Amino acid sequence: MDFSKFTYAKGEPKQDAEDAVPGENLPLHESEEGGEEAKPATEVNVSPDYRKPESTLSPVLVFVLSGGETRERNILKVLIRQKGVHALRVLFLSEQNQGLQPYQMQEKWQSVRRAKQLEIDGQTYHLYDIDKVFLLSDVDEFYGQLSEILSSKADDDSGCWIISNPCIEIWLYYCYRNEPKTDLACIEKLPESERSKRLKSLGNEIIKGGFNFDYAFEHLLEGIEHSEKYYEEDEKGIPVIFATGMYRLAKFIVETLETNGNEYEEYIRQKQLEREQRRKMK
């Protein structure tokens, strides 16, 4: 895999959690153990032999507001849990068990913009500490909602809409294969309201065992290359059939991880080693 073209550079590093002042109510960019970011400390006397531990950069924080709750969370679960990667953390928000329509997503996002903060799992984050905001939606039957939202988007609205047509399974498909006009030809003839359901069922027919979220995360580069080739928008900025903006989010993920000691490449290598070890134990 060629990782050389992924060159995302994070802005000024934020203060490390090791310098936090106990008791300060600033729960932003916390570590997984719940450590808080610091305010400037008061002056104290220290031994001349004291050496401050080497600081580490806080992870890039990405807020993902998703129309779908389960599939999208599974696609991003490695970054939500930060298991095996540390340079990027996803703050994921949706509506449990029912998801969100684009209008509802827009309402929540604009509320976050006005408040300049958001709350996830009882934890508050200030918007100025969020490095990137993505809003994930399927086209499905929401074409009218999406086109209206995009047409009225303010210039200072930093939210990046990631839209998949007909649904996010098209991204999973591109992580495996690259022949949608052949593999998915039957979908194009269906009404918009039936396309997502059919694509989900096709997964098991095209790929033995169906689409796998772990496989997709380990094959982001293939997904980027394949989906970008077929990406096209109509006159209202909505992706056409078999197009998905997920390649933008995937590029950001790979670029961010690769600038931190080639973390994505190392993650893939480690997963391959784990599979080899399991095979040897059988």
From TrEMBL:
Q: Positions of the region Disordered?
A: 1-51
Top-level taxon of origin: Bacteria
Q: Where is the composition biased (Basic and acidic residues)?
A: 27-40
In Swiss-Prot or TrEMBL terms, this protein is called RloB domain-containing protein
